[in-house]
Amino acid sequence: MTRPNWTLQEAEAHLGAVLEAASHGEPQTITLHGGASVVVVATHDYARLNKSAPPAPAAPNFVDHLLAMPREPEGASEQEPTRLSLRDPGF
């Protein structure tokens, strides 16, 4: 059994062992700067995990976002725009 955790340098030096263990169903974690960075898994495991993951919700595009805004009711009277007075900044 191969160890499941590798530093990046160790994984580069022993890439064959990392790939061999992953292809036999043993996920291999490669760390970068002391933290887990990537996990190497077999193709069939990845396909199984990817299939069971819920699909990401589709984000609406900008046009759909604008069209979803509330509309004025039919026959609504136009309001007079508010008049704003400018103040003297004093300089």
Following the backbone from N to C, one meets helices and strands in this order, namely EHHEEHH
Report Rg: 29 Å
Poorly predicted segments: none
What is the CATH first-level class name of the domain at 5-54? Alpha Beta
Number of helices: 4
Q: What is this entry, summarized?
A:
The chain has 91 residues and is α+β, with helices and mostly antiparallel strands. It contains 4 helices and 3 strands, in the order E-H-H-E-E-H-H. It has a domain at 5-54: YefM-like domain (YefM-like fold, 3-Layer(aba) Sandwich).
Molecular structure report:
By secondary structure, this protein is an alpha+beta fold. It has a domain at 5-54: YefM-like domain (YefM-like fold). The chain is built from four helices and three strands; from the N terminus they run βααββαα. It has helices at 8-13, 15-23, 43-52, 62-67, and strands at residues 5-7, 28-32, 35-40. The chain has a three-stranded mixed sheet. The radius of gyration is 29 Å and the shape is elongated. The mean pLDDT is 86. Belongs to the phD/YefM antitoxin family. This is Antitoxin. Pfam families: PhdYeFM_antitox. Residues 67-91 are annotated as: Disordered.
